[in-house]
Amino acid sequence: MRLMPNRLISCALVSALLSACGDDGGKATGATNPNPNTTNNDTTSSGTEGETSTGGPDQTTSTTSTTAPPEPTTTGTSGDSSTTDGSFITPPDGGGGTKECDQWTQDCPEGQKCMPYSGDGDNAWESLKCTPVMENAGQVGDPCTVEGSGVSGIDNCDEGNMCWDVVDGVGVCVALCIGSPDAPDCAAPMTSCLISNDGVLTLCLPFCDPLLQDCPGDDLCIPNPQNPDAFLCVLDASGEEGQEYDACEYINACDKGFTCANPEVALECDTMAIGCCIAFCDVTEAGVCTGQNAECLAWYEAGMAPPGFENVGFCGIPQ
């Protein structure tokens, strides 16, 4: 899956990731652990076509997973612009970036850290390089700044952290995953490891509840493609699109309360699209789905839901 400075098109959409368009820093305000009886260990996704997970509707797939920041957007009145330095989780372009170091082992010389960056000008992280660790470097949750853009790889966060959710050059420090690609983990509680952009981007993001959509600010609560038990807070890259039944290509390209799923889930969806924005719903509430022949279908198979997530569902046509 690929993130553009700054989830999953439902469970099987393990190939497109998130986008960084918000300005709330992705903090874990109100986030809940979907399965408090488990650790933060996750399984990495190979990103092969046709991958599926244990819950939710099938989602769009791609050969690998990558993330990139969204294209800069302009807001405000004439003469006053605000640009976002992060973006969508974009599908891979089939090419491999330059890997000058290993972000898992942080094998750079003293005083430097291994960071993801964009080296091909497409605003999406695809490479790794050693960059300087600044004085008084920020820790997880601290505000941070970047040099150049959100995909430059140069920021003032400490080793093992990166500046995320960057808007106008300012973001928040989040932790990189620890462990290894085969056994990823997160040191901070209530977070889960998200691996995207062909393994270059490895972030520990906060848990959330898809029914409550309890992420801070405009952040979305969507499933983690590497861990079917976890829903994570990611940046909203939907822009003016992302309403129910809109076509979507990236896991974070739907509005809050929706997820990018297989378009065959609903009659209103364009079957030629890569994905379609489908609503989350509570299976205990009747008549919440508005689509033709749609019902609130359980996200998890019977008996497989993590504690507290038994009522999570999505609006779709029973298969």
TrEMBL record:
Domain of life, per lineage: Bacteria
PROSITE patterns, per database record: PROKAR_LIPOPROTEIN (PS51257)
Region: Disordered, residue numbers: 27-102
Keywords assigned: Signal
Keyword Signal assigned: yes
Signal peptide: 1-20
Compositionally biased intervals (Low complexity): 29-87
The protein's name: Ribulose phosphate epimerase
Source organism phylogeny: Bacteria, Pseudomonadati, Myxococcota, Polyangia, Nannocystales
